[in-house]
Structures are given as C-alpha cells and as structure tokens.
Amino acid sequence: MNLYLRCGLASKVVPIRTQDEVKHFVMEEHGYTMGVGIPAFSISPSWSMLRFVPEDDIPVSVCAVSAKDHKSEQYLAFEHFMLKGFPRVLSLLGT
C-alpha cells in the first residue's frame, strides 16, 4: 500500500479484517478494495473487478506465509501452483 501512496493514491486507507467488513465497506460506505487481478479471487460474484490500465500498473510482490515445517497438502498444492502453474497461465494470457 505504501508504494501506491507514494505514487499518488489519495484515497483514505481503511483496515479491513473480515469478509463481513469488506461487504459493509463496499456496500454501505461505497468504498472499494484493491487486490490481485484474478477473477477466481473475487470476493463476491455480484461485484465487478476493474483492472488498472497497463500504464498505471505498479509491480507488487505477493508473499504466502506458512509454518516452516508444517505445510498442509492444500498449502503445498497452492505453493506448487504459484511457483509452476501461475507463471504458465500468465504467459498464455500474454501478461
């Protein structure tokens, strides 16, 4: 978020901790969220996702955090996808 603020983001930053808080913020306070631009990660099927125009994209590192010696099968599958599958998906999409 600091990178976006340094690049001119002027919107008020509101900490959100739960999906219920997201729903309230978006629906009742007419706020917006920023997230990874992958439709499968969308929080609600009734909301729309708008990508930044390419010239406004800012590269942002995304990190997954887990226990060092106790990774679940689901986490290992996610890790494998992020390291091997996701780059292939992006290359197919031309991004």
Structure overview:
By secondary structure, the protein is mostly helical. Helix content is 37%, strand content 0%. It contains three helices and no strands. The mean pLDDT is 79.
Radius of gyration: 16 Å
Low-confidence stretches: none
Approximate shape: globular
For the residues shown, what is the average pLDDT?
79
Percent helix among the residues?
A: 25-40%
Describe the protein's topology.
Blueprint lengths: L1 H5 L12 H9 L45 H21 L2
For the structure shown, list the relevant keywords:
globular; 3 helices; mainly alpha; 95 residues
In short, what is this structure?
37% of the residues lie in helices and 0% in strands. The chain has 95 residues and is mainly alpha-helical.
